[in-house]
Amino acid sequence: TGLVVAMSSRLLQFDETALRASLGNMKPSSACALGLAACCRSLGSFSDYRRKAGLPPRSEPFDTASQLWDLIVLPKAGDAMHPLIGVCDELLTLIPGEDDPWNDSAAFADDAVAALYYCVSTLVENDPANATYALRRSYEATDHLATEKLGLSVIRKQDEVEILSAHCIQLELHRQLRDRHLVQVNDLKTLRAMAQIETIFDEAPFPS
Which of 16, 21, 38, 109 has CB 3.0 to 4.6 Å from 49, enough for a Cys bridge? Predict the structure, then answer.
C-alpha cells in the first residue's frame, strides 16, 4: 500500500517506493482519487496564505479540485478531460515563490497546490504513478506541521521518531489507508465527502 508499520513502535510510515509500485497497478482515476483526497485536507491553507499575505482570493485550486472530483466520480465525466489541458501550468503560477510574501501558511499552501498539480497530471498524462507525488506532498505538509508543533527548527536524527509519532502525521497516514479501502470498494462519493470536511489540522481520532 505504500504505508508500512514500524515493528519497534507500531507507527505507520510513508514508503514512497512501495507506494509508487502499488499505484502503478491502479487506474489513473483511482490513483488520482487517493491523491486528491489527501490534497483537499490541506487545500484551505492556500486561502489562508493569500489572506494573511494581503493578496486577493483565487478560486482556481478549488475549482480544479471540484472538476477533478467530477471527472472521477460522475458517470461519463472522463469524456470531458480536455478542460484540464493547461491547468497544470496555471497551478504552478499560484505556488508561493521566493518573491512572494511569506507567512506561516506559505509552506502548507505550497504543498497543497503542488499536490493538486500532481493530481491533475495523473489524469492528463494517464500515469497513476504521478499520484505518488501528490500523496508525498500531503504527507510532507503534516511533517511540517509536526515539526512546527514540536518547536523544532533543526531536525536531528533522534527527533525522527518523535516527529513520526505526532498525531497529525499518524492521522494522515491512517486516513490514507482508509482512503485506499474506499477506492478499492469503489465508494468514491464517501471519499469525496470525507475530503471536504477533514483537514490536516484536525485533532480527530484515527479512522476505524
Answer: 109
